[in-house]
Amino acid sequence: MSGQYWKSLGDYAKEQAAQLRQLEKKSVDEAKVQKKELQSHYGKWLAWLLSLLKFARRKTFVLMGGDWVFLALLGILMAILSFTMDLGIYTCFTTRLWIYNHFKIYPALQFFTWFTLPVLLVLFSTGFVFIVSPQATGSGISEMKTIMRGVVLKEYLTFRTLIAKTVGLTAALGSGMPLGKEGALVHIGGIVGTLLSKLLTSFKGIYGNESRKTDMLATACAVGLSCSLGAPIGGVLFSIEVTSVYFAIRNYWRGFFSAVFGALMFRLLAYWSNSEGTLTTVFPTSFQVDFPYDPHELFIFALVGVFGGLSGAVFVLFHRRYVLFMRNNTRISSFLKYNRFIYPSIVSVLIASLFYPSGFGRYLATTLSTKQQVGALFANFTWLSDDLSVEQAERLSHWDVANTNLFVGLGIFMSANFFLSILASTLAVPRGSLIPIFKVGAAFGRMIGEAMYFWFPEGILCGNLHSILPGGYAIVGAAAFSAGVTHTVSISIVVVEMTGQIQHLIPILVAVIVSNVISTLLQPSIYESDIMIKQLPYLPCIISSRGAIHSIFVEDFMNRNVKYIWHGMTYGELKNLIEESQEIRSFPLLGDTEQKILLGSVQRVELIALIERHFGAERRLEAAANRYLEARKNEISRRKNSSFIVPPLAWQSVIPDPNAPIRRKVSRFEVITFSDVTATEFSGIGTQQSDERSQPETITPNLSSDSLIVTVESDVKVQSGWSFEQGIGMSPEEREEWEANEMFKVAEFKKDMIDPAPYQLVERTSLHKVHAIFSLLGVQQAYVTALGKLVGVVSLTELRKAIENANSGVLS
């Protein structure tokens, strides 16, 4: 019969293969016919064009795996999202300004309506983000740095977070709070890239593994910054600096390709919406001079960089101190915990009141949008001139220059945005930090530039006369202060692309480098400070360059109290270990407890699954069935050896009345009761005939365990539809006794659950090497061994603490 089956199977396989060949041949013939019809109908040139397109597709799309299509879609989608948010923000701004102008004759009502809309928008953003996805709160760059390092942050790259981030950011920036959007767009870019890679099934092969997911996230971060700032080159470089410790060169073309698509589409959308007359930069400038600065001015630009570094460090310090103060103050934190909308209401009312144009806001140009404010600070004319055109005079009218000293007004603008941006950044809304600090730096640079023009109206003498350009100082100041806060050099390229002003590239680079040197020595960047505040599992860089730091080895800071499992441990010991070590995700596996030779590691979830399988319902059912069968065999054996006839009552525990309940207790085991049994099998049982009472052997052939179980099971299934296995169980006392006995059995660790090659370090591995290994490979923890013997474990927590101690000068 088996031979016939295999023969039939072979014939069937041959028939199916023949059918497939016929279908394939038919499809090829149909394609040829269609091709001939196409050639005859449209002509040979169209067929030639189609063949050329197919050839191009084979040489580009197929060879590249469709990667470039994914990158183009990513850039286009991010540009659409960024432009849509800008439209929403601008609509909120114009609506607020219209309401302010509409109630000019009612000052009290005008003031009330001025701060009402911002408060409502901030409260809406806070509530919407909290309800939809609390992970959308904050910048997002610090979280992306952590995710790209290999740490899994739950719900940070989901569609819900995308909706919360987009809507919340639009409402928060539309309220007029001194916030930016670059950080939020980096997070949005990561979410869009993740969702797009899941949505397009053809790209799953490209970004299916973890390393390619990191590549995709790096590209998405670059696109987010490019669409936010309109700077494709600077956006890629900036994203590398703020999100990556080590950047793969293979991602360069991906980042630039997608960033160019995003930036180009972002500017095209502005042109198509008639908001721009042509394709321009985000903050256009027009310094139409051949010699924009004198060589002697480079020293002044370096001093601007010094200010940018110092003020940037102060900004980061004040921001962290204020956040920690609000968090560590028990009264304030407990009050705000149960009154989520109180703090946003207070902050938004305070900031909106200070921005009131008829009050303190006349020094802050609050009737201008952010783009208009920065454009005025970058203006190519001096504000001290008495000979202004109508357009120039109208631009300065928003700054109240006529009634206030220019330097006092710029100082107020700079100070107010400095402190209010720190205050606004503590709101539980999506946000960025770059644009507010960009305005602060531009105001300081404008102040220095106007002072230089006041002192040297004809320019600094150096062979020829070169006039001072205060707008150039504003650009340098914006770049310097931004570099001091973010600790990036690529901000210089970003500023050049945002302004289109390449003539001041050398002064910008000088100021940015000086600012970076100073701020790096004093404070971490704003993004690393956020990581410290949120206590995210991210490794800081090793700053100290002392020779003694190379004498720090992994044995100096590893954890020697290692929780481990070993071959030969019981289930009870394993269960206790898991319950005592709730925070450990992976346990090292040793050969024994004496030599402690490391054999591998086992994930916590695998151990929990092992225990659940061992003590699960299936094994309990099996144990109960075995007990039942053993009891039946003992009962049958006892009755075989009995020299007297079995009374009827003795069999009622085995074969009860069919009308009795289905489940009954027999001895210590819960078993199903039997329905009527065939008279031929048990005809001699329980009869009252005196001649058969002396013949107990008549029941011997009919009471074997196998025949009994089969008969009972089939009979119960037929008459009641009830499964035999369902009727066997344990009482709570029996289950407790069984589990107690099972706890003493040896746990069996199967090969498929063991990682035979976990990350290992030797005791004398230096701190620098450990940091490099963890950063490059995305390691979460590594075991420390000595000649194969497990002596310790080092995780991100121990390594981060060791680096912080080394950076602070504690080298022991």
TrEMBL record:
- Could you tell me which Pfam families the record lists for this protein? Voltage_CLC (PF00654)
Q: Name one GO cellular component term.
A: chloride channel complex
A molecular function GO annotation: voltage-gated chloride channel activity
Localization terms from the record: Membrane
Q: Which organism is it from?
A: Daphnia pulex (Water flea)
- Is Cell division set as a keyword in this record? no
Q: Which CDD domains match?
A: ClC_1_like
Keywords for the protein's UniProt record, in alphabetical order: CBS domain, Chloride, Chloride channel, Ion channel, Ion transport, Membrane, Repeat, Transmembrane, Transmembrane helix, Transport, Voltage-gated channel
Entry annotated with the keyword Membrane: yes
**Membrane topology summary:** Multi-pass membrane protein
Residues that span the membrane, as ranges: 68-90, 111-132, 217-240, 252-272, 298-318, 338-356, 406-429, 436-456, 468-496, 508-527
Q: Which InterPro entries match?
A: CBS_dom_sf (IPR046342), Cl-channel_core (IPR014743), Cl_channel_volt-gated (IPR050970), ClC (IPR001807)
Any GO BP annotation:
chloride transport
SUPFAM superfamilies from the entry?
Answer: CBS-domain pair, Clc chloride channel
The protein's name: Uncharacterized protein
